[in-house]
Fold each of these.
Amino acid sequence: MRLQPGLAVVAVGGNSLIKGPDRMTVPDQYEAARETMVHIAEMIAQGWRVVITHGNGPQVGFILRRSELSLHELHPVPLDAADADTQGAIGYMFQKALYNEFRRRGMRQLAVTVVTQVLVDRNDPAFQNPTKPIGSWMDEETARRRAAEQGWVVREDAGRGWRRVVPSPRPRRIIELPAIRALLEDGFVVIAVGGGGIPVVEDETGDLVGVEAVIDKDLASALLAIELRADLFLISTAVEKVALDYGKPTQRWLDRLTASEARRHLAEGQFPPGSMGPKIEAILQYLDHGGKAALITDPPHIPAALRGETGTWFVQDE
């Protein structure tokens, strides 16, 4: 499959900035960001207008860990503030990498980051059932003490230790959407909805209040793609294509899926909740709301996938 260039929302995973346990520093993350932005710049050079979103799980984890280690001297960092911090830091990496790549190519584009708030429903059932692990691993004694002292919800995680868990409510509205639209119309490459956006709720007066929660990055990116009526929703991840029976002797790579086929495989458990599942759910949400086409591939294969040579394409039912 091959699309004519139009408007694309490109979701970059936060884990893609971490190449390994020995490559986690900020310069290491910038180098990973630079590599990915080369491929997105090529996409832009081919005529695509692009909004870039990104994950921030590892980076928020680093901030929370630093906060834990310095509690004897400094105030803790609330989760919504950590989201804002990482939106700025990762946005800066992407902006700088794109500026340098555009300069090398003789392109006059400029990228800009919008620190983005995303409205969630304060009555979302997720607030009664926190499931998203964040922060560092703890032994049970430490976890229960932190829970008592700071009001955390903590859970044991698959025999590996204890972690804090927070709600993961569904995104309802992107607060800065009009600004994102205006920047696109003026020709900017926009970086927005980082980490799924900063989760906020409306209080009784209509004021926005930050909450301790994590919005799924892919679901928020799908909402952005729907609201912008994007021609393409592209999820950049760790694999070139999506597979059935992943990791098994019967594994087979997929070139193309209709919405119905993707929904069936999701229901059959082919796409686990902890890995490919949320990406497929986000793509189905986008297609269900009139989206034209979606694509999953890894950063180096983005140009080839857009030429129809690789990646897994998702399309409306025929």
Amino acid sequence: MAIEPHPEADRDAPASQAHSGRGRLLVSCPDRPGIVAAVSRLLYDLGANISDADQHSTDPSGGTFFMRMAFELPAAREGRDGVTLDAVRDAFGREVAPRFAMRWRMADAGRPKRVAVLASKVEHCLQELLWRRRAGEFDDPIVMVISNHQRLRSVAESFGVPFHHLPVREGETAAQEERALELLEGTADVVVLARYMQVLSPAFVARYRERMINIHHSFLPAFSGGRPYHRAYERGVKLIGATAHYVTEELDQGPIIEQDVVRVSHRQRVPELVRLGREIERRVLARAVQLHLEDRILVHGNKTIVFE
């Protein structure tokens, strides 16, 4: 069986880049005996110390096996001559992955992923990400904010983050997307849609497959379109929620990363529902971004395996 390359497999750490000596390995493959032993043995032979490991199987007899393993290379961390993360990656791709027909990636845990945020007019999700970054909850930098409106410029710049205004004019959507891609290329590893109220083209989405995260309320598909909280209020909903997912070509149908809900009653009117909804969106998006930055997500079909 051919090994399917992962979109991040060759992107995380160029050979010319110094490594931190901390790695994260994510694996999916057909389940069979010996997988954990083979991975652990290779890391041991190369002088690595496993610091965290988690695994899941859909069915031990013929199912799919998933694993996340974090490890350290003491020699590399101390600046001594020894096995580098590049060497571990090469050995794994040569000696272990082909034996088990693995889909895998190995990330340098000390190399921050660069985050770009796309937003429109509503600021709560952008504010949450910027605040958590300033508070030290994200080690990974937010390198830019791109918006089709000027309203959020002061928010981004108050946190010292570059702001790019790319308006969307009728008949010029393709040109606007191309300009956005020019800004992102080589600058951003992860794209977060923080209430970005534009539908992206399939070509744009394909450039950041499994690296673009969106947030929206969880009324879909019952209350799609505009004014969902008004329609939910009219129907007397009892739960308000939010969903964060990877973006795919099919609108709001990508693999779900994180969700949350809060109970409501007939006593809450539309403004209160909106406020509660925004609070949940902030938490859910921030949680989904953090899971991605820490390499805790494996996509399997149209669902995710999340190692928490």
